[in-house]
Amino acid sequence: MGTDRADRTDPVDSAGYPDSAGSVADRLGVLRFDGLLTVPWRNGGGLTREVASAGRSGSQGFDWRVSIADVDEPGPFSAFPGVDRVITVVRGEGMVLVVDGVEHSLGLYEPFGFDGASQTRCSRLSGPVRDLNVMTRSDLLSAAVAIRDLSQTRPIAIAGAQVLVLLTGSAVVVGADGSRADLRSLDAVGPSGEHVRLVEGSGRAVVIRIEHRHHLRGEPC
Length: 221
Known about the structure:
By secondary structure, this protein is mainly beta. It has a domain at about 35-140: Jelly Rolls (Sandwich), CATH 2.60.120. The chain contains 2 helices and 19 strands. It has helices at about 20-25, 215; strands at about 30, 40, 45-55, 65-70, 75, 85-90, 95-100, 100-105, 110-115, 120-125, 130-135, 140-150, 155-160, 160-165, 170-175, 180-185, 190, 195-200, 205-210. A 6-stranded antiparallel sheet has the order 2-3-4-11-6-9, with no helix packed on it. Strands 1-17-14-19-12 form a 5-stranded antiparallel sheet. The longest helix is centred in the N-terminal third of the chain and has 9 residues, at about 20-25. The N and C termini lie far apart (about 40 Å).
């Protein structure tokens, strides 16, 4: 971190965790919500934090992307031709989307998929909303988004192109060597050099699985 540890009595990382815990968390693929870059929308209606992304070959500059958005007021969504989207409300009272003229009511923890090229707008809000967005290149990838109750399931294994975001409660991510890191609300576990990591705890989490479309059809990768 560019600072002599001997000069610091209580070294912490940028999210307020001890340095030793921070390095373990980094190795386990933990992405702290407090450390995510915040980008305001051009129309002033909200802001976005990118959680994880991969690939640069698509016209949008990514092959897949997971982000968290704060929506403060109704308004149009940006168009993403060639991209499939899944949006899940994770905070707030829900919202109403109009996609190509058809109205859809989105409740809390209800993933909703649609074509990124569609004319889409948020028509009604009951108050500020925070949502999770998953975008994938429609010609190459597909995303499965599932809400899991950590207290009602075995530890969740995260590997490959998978991302877990803790929505409520508390959890721990455990590496193959037994190393552990705590997760707080909206912290994520993303792709990492660790082959498999286990997440256990209480509360809810969303698990995103990214797959190649030809693999889904049973063709060899």
